[in-house]
Amino acid sequence: MLNQMPVSRNAMVTTPHYIASAVGSSILQQGGSAVDAAIAISAALGVVYPHMTGLGGDAFFLVHDGQSGRIAAYNGSGRSAAGINADTFKSMGMSAIPQRGVLSAITVPGMVDAWWEVWNRFGKLEWAVLLEPAARYAEQGCPVSRNLRLWMERDEELITGYAPLRRIYAPEGTLLREGDLLLQPELAASIRLLQSGGRKAFYTGELAERIAAAMLEDGGMLTAKDFADHRGAWVEPVSTDYRGYQVHQMPPNSQGFSMLMMLNMLENINLSAVARTSPEFYHLMAEVVKKAFRDRDRYLTDPDFRKIPLEHLLSKAYGNELWNEIHAAPPSAQPFISQTMGQDTAYAAVVDGDGHAVSFIQSLYFDFGSAYVPGGTGIIMQNRGSFFSLDPKDANVLEPGKRSFHTLMPGMVTRNGKPCLLVGTQGGEGQPQTQLSVLTGVLDYGLTVQEAIGLPRWVYGRTWGEDGDTMRVENRFHDDVCDTLARWGHQVEAVSPWDGIMGQSQGIAISEDGMISGAADPRGDGMAIGW
């Protein structure tokens, strides 16, 4: 399963949608930096990929500064409303936060703030220039892509049952088809306000006022003060060494550290000696995932509210301890029940001619987020806050002004201080697993980044309505692999690469001689462009 892999000397862009890739390429060719291109891509994805991301969501950025050689990380996740806690929902007779509607939209969107901050630090072009392609595609329209149509079909009842979504995605009473023109005039007007008003327009200006007023009228929780008080944060990445490379992730509240824990376990084995599509490989992956997720689910939340023992979790000694637990047991599935979570995300990466590299990711959490659009803004609000627990014993219990356990995790790999691989993916709990698949494909099995993205994938975990965990593997190899895994105690399901469960991954590799390779996932609508 391969796309053609472009290789270039100067710059590279890869995104999950071909229009967004073209937008990023255009910004670079206008003299913009990799961060300029990333912001323009991010805004464009909110228009052409609205089921996965948008102004109402969050975003995380990893930026390698080509001048200083340092990696900067920006956490653009929003906090819960200041006036609510777990008892707010319990008093309404609820045992969990709703997954859709205005009551699921309880965290401030952090993406616009993230754009503003990374642009102020690393941008070159004018702010308004970066948002112009997104505004234009919202006003003049863009074609419905294959992936958008797939999710519209799945969410037809959601879309047709709510007027603001129905007006956009089923304007004549039936869903738009692949290739039909998608027009978003209200969203275009909101982007125009951002062009002229910058960050203030979203957090203290007209958009903030309209969103807060609509949410108050509709029984929501977020207030104008919640928007005005929002600030993202520059943070220090977390990292581990693996086979002579340094692998970098966002720190908590991101789940990125869980993938680093997996690498620490796998460093104890010559993985390249294990056949990549063998039952032994998939069993091994399932077991290291379980060990890492056990600690992730126990500790992960906003580190401002709970201490997370990262030094211990990321130590090589603890990785060895966990590996010994796996290695000492015969090949049999160990019991574990994971949390269910949303998986709808957009990841992209950019490298420019000045040595800057950006690995970034954004999301509404669920497909179409909360499905709530406030006040004629055209902005779909995220439902990230629905993942908060109402159990006071849980680390991720809902508290005022708190950032939730976050699935978003852009990745970056360096060697001798220089970036050599940017990688990320859609997929909720699949994100650390797919990154693991791509990273080991490149670093252990010697594949190109495009070949690694095209490898048969797995996702271990639990989906909504299931009592236990299932190991889902792509149906691209012999049945005896699944039969062996089942005999070892795994609940196994073979799935199509095209049904969305495995998500979409993108990546950029940079060789020691400076050649840049870009890869887009053939499972999606993406494209890599380099020159």
Radius of gyration: 22 Å
Unreliable stretches (pLDDT < 50, length at least 5) are none
Strand content: 15-25%
Task: Quickly give the structural class.
Answer: alpha+beta
Please work out how many helical segments DSSP would assign. 18
Average per-residue pLDDT, rounded, comes to 94
Question: How far is it from the N-terminal to the C-terminal residue, by CA?
Answer: 24 Å
User: Could you tell me the number of beta strands?
Assistant: 19
Give the CA-based shape: globular
What does this entry look like structurally?
This protein has 531 residues and is an alpha+beta fold. Helices cover 36% and strands 18% of the residues. Helix 2 (34-48) runs antiparallel to helix 4 (111-122).
Topology:
Elements: E1 7-8, E2 12-15, H1 18-29, H2 34-48, E3 58-64, E4 71-76, H3 86-90, H4 111-122, H5 127-140, E5 142-143, H6 146-154, H7 156-160, H8 163-169, E6 181-182, H9 185-203, H10 206-217, H11 224-229, E7 233-235, E8 238-242, E9 245-249, H12 256-266, H13 279-299, H14 310-313, H15 316-328, E10 344-351, E11 357-365, E12 411-415, E13 418-425, H16 430-443, H17 449-453, E14 458-461, E15 470-474, H18 479-487, E16 492-495, E17 505-510, E18 516-520, E19 527-530
Parallel strand pairs: 15-16
Antiparallel strand pairs: 1-18, 2-10, 2-19, 3-4, 3-11, 4-7, 5-6, 8-9, 9-12, 10-11, 12-13, 13-17, 14-15, 17-18
Helix pairs in contact: 1-2, 2-4, 2-5, 5-9, 9-10, 12-13, 12-15, 12-16, 13-18
